[in-house]
């Protein structure tokens, strides 16, 4: 089994916090093949992350801005007067 850390261009210790380890379970890929896979997965992840942003809060409509309470809500517990 080989890992990305086995490649000659393994990241330094300061980059270790930003990297993700991957383990090859079958076969013996070249460093170029590993780099290609990592590049494709990274690009797919970045696209998905960019599309996953929450929509901004909708602006209130003109009616919501200008509408105001004309009276207090009825207190139905008082009954008829």
UniProtKB/TrEMBL annotation:
A GO term for molecular function: acetyl-CoA carboxylase activity
Pfam families per the UniProt record, alphabetical: ACC_epsilon (PF13822)
Domain of life: Bacteria
UniProt name for this protein: Acyl-CoA carboxylase subunit epsilon
Taxonomic placement: Bacteria, Bacillati, Actinomycetota, Actinomycetes, Micrococcales
């Amino acid at each position: 089994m080989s890992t990305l850390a086995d490649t000659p261009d393994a990241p330094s210790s300061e980059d270790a916090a930003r990297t993700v380890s991957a383990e090859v379970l079958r076969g013996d890929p070249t460093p170029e093949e590993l780099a290609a896979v990592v590049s494709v997965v990274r690009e797919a992840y970045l696209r998905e992350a960019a599309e996953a942003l929450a929509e901004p809060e909708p602006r209130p409509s003109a009616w919501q801005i200008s509408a105001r309470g004309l009276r207090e809500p009825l207190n139905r517990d008082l009954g008829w007067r």
